[in-house]
Amino acid sequence: MTTSPAAPAxxxxxxxxxxxLERRILDAIRRGASxxxxxxxxxxxxxxxxxxAIEALKDGNARFFSGKSGRPELDVNERRAQIxxxxxxxxxxxxSDSRVPVxxxxxxxxxxxxxxxxAGNVVGEAxxxxxxxxxxxxxxxxxxxxxxxxxxxxxxxMLSPEQIAQEPDNLQSIIHRITPSLVDMPxxxxxxxxxxxxxxxxxxxxxxxxxxxxVIREAEASGQIQVIGGYYxxxxxxxxxxxxxxxxxx
Length: 250
Fold this sequence. Notes:
The chain is of the alpha/beta class.
């Protein structure tokens, strides 16, 4: 007989709530809880708000870059618990770069994040439709556009028009979604600093592109979601969160 897990007590902050949630869900799975029971557990936590989702990602990334990742080995029951449905609390539009493993960077488990990955973390039709699905059908509470250190797609967009023209047509299409963000780049002599600013500009540009889409604009206006940016430093493992409007302004 299935035993419904008790709802968790309110935590003092979203980070503590997320850590407690993961432990309670694992315990519930091992006791044979249903997907309805697990969904109920999730909906009793602070991650079901945009602010709570942001704090959950910050908390998970802090564990990752400090070398204290808490995800245990996944057992068969935890995998089977995902069969009947998914309840991610955030969606991340990230780059396809193999050095940017999103779930590891935020120290999350199965079913926590809905991830779209494309070179340069650019907004295209397929990715936009995927994010709209996450909003309308999965009830996510956050969308993050996450760029990263040493992004090859952004570096390609900084090449001359003649060099870009030598790339395959589909790759050029991706590059041309980045180049508008680089038009007013400040003159930065340090190569690494200039690259970081280019990636950040692209993140801001893609955030604004998303916010102009009707489904996302409506969901953000209603308070269902928040659209933010992020910059992942491969060397340190830390993510800089672009949450304030001033940080997101192109």
